[in-house]
Amino acid sequence: MFQGLSEKLQETFKRLKGKGRLKEADVNEAMREVRVALLEADVNFKVVKDFVAKVKERSIGQEVLESLSPAQFVIKIVHEEMIELMGGATGKILIAPKPPTVILLIGLQGAGKTTHAAKLANMLKKQGKHPLLVACDIYRPAAIKQLQVLGDQLEVPVFSMGQDAPVDIARASIKHANSNGQDVVIIDTAGRLHINEELMSELRDIKASVKPHEILLVVDAMTGQDAVNVAESFHKDLGLDGVILTKLDGDTRGGAALSIKAVTGCTIKFAGTGEKMDALEPFHPDRMASRILGMGDVLTLIEKAQESFDEKKAKEMEQKLRKQEFTLDDFLDQMQQMKKMGPISSILEMLPGGMGKQLKDVQIDEKDTAHLEAIIRSMTMEERRKPIVIKDSRKKRIAKGSGTSVQDVGRLLKQFEQMQKMMKQFANPGGMGMLGMGKK
Ligand code: GDP
Questions:
Q1: Which ligand 1 atom is nearest residue 272's CA?
Q2: Cα(270) to centroid of ligand 1, in Å?
């Protein structure tokens, strides 16, 4: 996501690299480019204007912090201002004190309402809730069926009354939830191709009759400024509690993500990142800003790692990294853990630019860990701890012992060396080294 914008911004910041102090002319030049990049990304015109003005004001004439290069200093300000732009999201559903919590999903046709009703149900179910999906999209012939299929797949009940009036279905579903112990009701409503009075009045009626705790607007990120306009209209008419920004996985520009909050005042609560049921993320402005700036999404990566890593092991590993005692045994362990985190390619995507590229050269063959394991197992303890002692004759012995070639052993050692280098960067608390823009 956001590749287009991200690449342009990184180009701009690269050019700032090496400048001694921040001069007005340099900042102005960089901000001209940032402005163009944001406009091309379909960020709202006024948002861009305010944004650039703020960054300029904070950058020009400022004493650059000792620990940062001028480029990093500007990136830091841009990063902070981007967080501010998208800020305030909680990524949570507010659970009502008295069940059921009623969530109304609204939006235009094709935005992803039905899909996200199911994704939300899936998420809430995992959190120990008992959701009920409600089929109020009576106009699109396949919508009820689609919701039922998804409900079956997730083992979440679906409430439907065919083509009855949506307001009646919604009202009846609350009663149904009450008498069946369902504590969250998620209502999937009908969309239209465009906003019109018929749609709004239908939604106003449902709102009045079920008094939802959360009215969430589902909008397609790929529609850029249209998504922002849609959000503005719905918010004025119905009062939104939040936005679910869908299809972020296909959004190379980022205009909607960056403008919705600033233009409408509504926070983006969730982001849809794929068609699968688990492709729903709480929207984290700080992580989005990092992604847009090509800093990678280190936080998401760490969270993912925590999900699949054994906590005790992770602590041990961290200690080792800090003391730089990372051995080949640990390397093997890491590879196996990383495999559990999902395809290596998807992990690489989340790493900051420089690091991702470095790792790409490492080319971890996902099928090949058995091979690696055999090589490492053929080493002595000393060799595993201090691979530097492995010269030609030892390489031959290890290759023979593991049924591989000297080249295979050499390759593994090289990979290990690169991984060690990368780990050192990871362990460096400054973190900014990851941008590949050393202090000048
Ligand atoms: P509705 O008319 O608003 O109910 O929209 P649907 O839920 O039927 O979604 C329309 C299409 O968008 C479907 O083909 C979905 O699979 C797809 N879709 C929904 N959300 C996402 C998303 O986050 N990423 C991607 N890639 N596709 C999505």
A1: 23
A2: 14
pLDDT tens digits, residue range 171-226?
999 999 999 999 999 999 999 989 999 999 999 999 999 999 999 999 999 999 99
Task: Give the CA-trace dihedral at 223, 227, 230, 234, to 10 degrees.
Answer: 140
275 within ligand 1 shell (Cβ under 6 A)? yes
Predicted local confidence at residue 425, as pLDDT? 66
| 436 assigned binding-site residue | no
pLDDT tier, 433 (very low <50, low <70, confident <90, very high otherwise): very low
Nearest 5°: the CA angle 269, 274, 278 is 70
**Domain 3-86 falls under CATH 1.20.120.140:** yes
Whether CATH 3.30.70.240 fits 299-435: no
110 annotated among ligand-binding-site residues: yes
Distance from the alpha carbon of residue 389 to the mean position of ligand 1, in angstroms: 56
pLDDT at 276: 94
CATH 1.20.120.140 domain range(s) in the chain: 3-86
Rounded to 10 degrees, the C-alpha dihedral 122/124/126/129 comes to -120
Kind plus residue range of the DSSP H or E element containing 9 = helix 3-16
Per-residue pLDDT tens digits for 333-382: 776 666 666 555 555 555 554 455 555 544 555 556 677 888 998 999 88
Domain 101-295 belongs in CATH node 3.40.50.300: yes
Whether residue 434 is predicted with pLDDT greater than 50 in this model: the reply is no
C-alpha span between 190 and 182 (Å, rounded): 23
Give the pLDDT score at 189: 96
Q: Distance, CA 112 to ligand 1 centroid (Å)?
A: 4
Atom of ligand 1 nearest to the CA of 250: 26
